[in-house]
Amino acid sequence: MDMNSFNKILHNQFMFKKIVIAFITKQFKNKSFLTGLDIAQKFDGSLTVVDCVYKKPSKFVFFETSDDKKSYAKTKEKILK
Fold first, then answer.
1. Distance of CA 32 to the CA centre of its chain
2. Within a domain: 7
3. Which of 9, 32, 45, 62 could make an S-S bridge to 40, C-beta 3.0–4.6 Å?
């Protein structure tokens, strides 16, 4: 069986119409995105990208201190750039 036949069988049996890529670390961003994009193009699907951000827990359980708020604001600013 050649690769074209295999791809046609795979396409007919497993149609990937909605692909979601979640970025958790910077280390694999490009590879994950390109792989997801390739799959979405091959199967005529859509691609959704989610960038996961870790929010450092507050020092106290019930409220955030001013330092917590400043730290969160800096992290948010970096992400939005």
1. 8
2. no
3. 45
